Amino acid sequence: MMENQYGVRRLACALLAEACFGGLRSKLRNGKRRQAAALQKVILYTLTPILLFGCSEQEVAMNNFPVEKSDAEWHSELTPEQYRVLREAGTERPFTGVYTDSEALGVYRCAGCDAELFTSDNKFHSGCGWPAFDDVAKTDRVILREDRSLGMVRTEVLCANCGGHLGHLFNDGPAETTGLRYCINSAALEFEQKEEVNCE
Ligand SMILES: [Zn+2]
Fold first, then answer.
1. Ligand 1 geometric centre to CA of 40 (Å)
2. CB of 181 within 8 A of CB of 173?
3. Coil, helix or strand for 48?
4. How far is the CA of 25 from the centre of ligand 1 (A)?
5. Ligand 1 geometric centre to CA of 194 (Å)
6. Lower CB density within 10 Å: C or N end of the chain?
7. What is the distance in A from the centroid of ligand 1 to the CA of 52?
């Protein structure tokens, strides 16, 4: 499939180059300038969408993640709800996630790849119905992407390790810290409780 697409793009580029610099030369030499210009337009208008599609494909290719799995593997490893959220950018119903009100101390890992994403130190009660964090464990743990679905412009938060959809980022977080609110689905997370330190 990919090879075919790259083949089409290579052919499109070759045709475009030929149209611009190659085949037209003979027509120009023959004095058929008007015919050559018309042919050039047709080829350009036909190939531009193909080339643009090629650009969007490059954008997707840039999103290659360290952890890549087949759809069948994700299906077998994740629960249906985890799959819907992580792999289909779904959103769990508010106030239904297991970590929404949790105050336990520990680390929140990606349910898809186990990467450490958030810590309880950054968790706060937002009242929005989903677990909320004012920062990530480390800045390179997530990727932010513009999301124009559902008629809104939002910032999507993805796991930088596996590309799993985690939730969205808003700028209505606690003003006394970062001012950010990472609104994350519980289904995208696995909590690892910090071991209790015995002071006796
Ligand atoms: Zn992940």
1. 47
2. yes
3. helix
4. 54
5. 20
6. C
7. 30
Q: Measured in Å, how far apart are the chain's first and last C-alpha atoms?
A: 63
The domain ranges of the chain are: 2-62, 71-193
71-193: CATH topology: 2.170.150
Whether 162 sits among the annotated catalytic residues: the reply is: no
User: pTM surpassing 0.70?
Assistant: no
Please spell the DSSP secondary structure of 153-183, one letter per residue: -EEEEEETTT--EEEEEES-S-TTTTS-EEE
Residue in 113, 159, 162, 183 annotated catalytic: 183
